[in-house]
Amino acid sequence: MGLVRRWFRTEGVMALERGWDDPTAAREWDAQGDEINPTRAEQLDILASVLAGRVRAGDWILDLGAGSGKVESLLFERIPGIRVVGVDNSSAMLDLARARLQPYGDRFLAVPGDVACLSRIALPTPNWRAVIAVQSLHHLAADEMRSVYGWVYAHLQPGGLFLLLDRLQVVSEATFWLMRSAWLRLDHLHGTAGASTEGATFAEHRAALAEEGDQPQSLETHLEWLKSLGFEVVVLHLHGNRGLLAAAKQLFV
Ligand SMILES: C[S@@+](CC[C@H](N)C(=O)[O-])C[C@H]1O[C@@H](n2cnc3c(N)ncnc32)[C@H](O)[C@@H]1O
């Protein structure tokens, strides 16, 4: 298996074959940079900036699918005094997160659990100022993802914020080819290999997602689901099939 293919597999296939719980799969995800997703760094930078404007020292933030704690490292450096509860169903990923975030002491709490069953997980606070999900919810089935959104809306404080950074569905052959031009441009700019990891044709792209068990939803679907719950939603950043959405719960509901 070539290196590029292996990178692609770290986002999902490897998880399916060996599970995110496999320590090798977890370490490989953790070790990779932005080789398959050069948009990630900019989107994370925007996410941290927006969050910084909405939370205060002492606030708890909930991270759904926190993984190895890379996002928390960034947030703790950028936003003084915040605390994060990271839920993940991979103990291998949470072990990496605990090790990475050990210097931040009790600002990080790792909670093992399936984000598709949030109501069954014991969390330290019932209501949240902010909830984030970074490259994690596309692993859920559509009905699970929709019910996660319902849970998030119900458990956000008035005025609270949900930030979703994730892979989006490529909805058609025509849009695949348009996105492919954009992926190739990114690879040219950054020396990355994102285009090849997305598949050389729309059929290949869909087959790879199916093989991985990834179930990204379209931008329109995310917007419809979130708005139907009462969220006010803005697309903060969109590049091809990678999006950062901010969903705000109104202050008076
Ligand atoms: C691609 S990694 C992203 C990790 C982290 N959010 C980041 O961006 O660095 C996806 C993570 O989602 C977690 N995950 C996938 N499905 C999950 C589920 N149903 N419940 C909890 N965590 C899940 C995996 O274990 C993995 O840690």
Describe it.
With 253 residues, the chain is of the alpha/beta class. It has a single domain (3-169, 216-248), classed as Vaccinia Virus protein VP39 (Rossmann fold, 3-Layer(aba) Sandwich), CATH 3.40.50.150. 45% of the residues lie in helices and 20% in strands. The chain has 11 helices and 7 strands. It has helices at 3-10, 13-18, 23-31, 40-52, 70-78, 91-101, 142-155, 173-190, 194-197, 202-212, 219-229; strands at residues 60-64, 83-88, 108-112, 128-134, 156-167, 232-239, 242-248. Strand 6 and strand 7 (242-248) form a beta hairpin. Helix 4 packs across helix 5. The longest helix has 18 residues, at 173-190. The N and C termini lie far apart (52 Å). 42% of the residues are buried. S-adenosylmethionine binds next to helix 5 and strand 2.
Report a brief summary of the structure.
The protein has 11 helices and 7 strands.
User: Cα-atom Rg, whole angstroms?
Assistant: 17 Å
Determine the oligomeric state from the structure: single chain
- The CATH homologous superfamily name equals Vaccinia Virus protein VP39
Outline, from the CA principal axes?
A: globular
For the biggest sheet, the summary is: 7 strands, mixed
Q: Structural class per helix/strand content?
A: alpha/beta
Poorly predicted residue ranges: 1-10, 12-16
Bound molecules: S-adenosylmethionine
Q: Distance between the terminal alpha carbons, to the nearest Å?
A: 52 Å
CATH class: Alpha Beta
Q: What's the CATH topology name?
A: Rossmann fold
How many beta-strand runs? 7
What is the residue-averaged pLDDT? 92
Which H/E pattern describes the elements? HHHHEHEHEEHEHHHHEE
**Count of helical segments?**
11
